[in-house]
What does this fold into?
Amino acid sequence: MRASAAGWLRRRLGVEIADPAGAEPSVIPTVGSKELVALLPTLLGLQGSATTVLLPEIAYPTYEVGAVLAGLSVRRCDAPPADAGAVSLVWLNSPGNPHGRVLTDEQLRAWVEWGRAHGVPVVADECYITLGWDVSPRSILHPAIAGEDHTGLLAVHSLSKQSTAAGYRGGLLSGDPVLVRRVWEVRRHLGLLVPAPVQAAMVAALDDDAHVDAQRERYRARRERLAAAVRGAGMRIDHSEAGLYLWATRDEDCWTTIDRLAGLGIVAAPGSFYGAAGARHVRLALTASDERIDAAVERLR
Ligand SMILES: Cc1ncc(COP(=O)(O)O)c(C=O)c1O
It folds into this structure.
């Protein structure tokens, strides 16, 4: 599994990790990526440390869940803060859920430098990284960002999105061998191991690019149809340059938009669910079937 993961990281992301089969694992499988996101502060031994986890202003809720579970505080910010204070962990998410925002190389480098300067691990959730539309998202472990040294850096990947395999629960954690090993050792004692049949499925998925590219084209076609209809219905789409969602607004409270869409029989997610800064947006997913996307396009007309 590690060899396939290392091959995938090299081929698809241009990332070279330390010896994947060595005593210090630089990549490990996870039970999908959500449990890892929720448990990482605990697995790193941060619980009860009276420290703070930084997460994006508008964020997938599980970063906060994991911090709260470990008894830590959270602070939302999109740029490295002037004071490191009691920060013990930074979560980045690029491409982001819900808004599909992609961090630039400069932004990624600024976080890496900040983490190094303050001795704080920077963890990038990159589960949508193969789904760039208007830009090519870069991994935090790429040499253009991290140089040759992954110290203090971790990246999280998932087969759920790129291989449409959420039911298999296959994810990856890679990066700093010291941090990966710490996480791995605790996971073994918790029984958080990926069953061999799932690892075999992960190997098959990681070794094959054709299905990822075919699925990507399905998402691209849905995105084009739905984006045109959403704009045609008078909404603006912000960010959404990558990932599986359209981040749309009518410049009104998100619940008003949710209500309008519900009246058309279209279910979207309220932006406020992802943080106060999302209160005027809704998230429309490209994960529905072609037939359901076409029905939504008709209804928006
Ligand atoms: C940003 C982000 N991270 C992690 C996950 C978890 O996905 P999985 O556990 O299926 O790998 C999701 C799922 O929607 C997500 O949007």
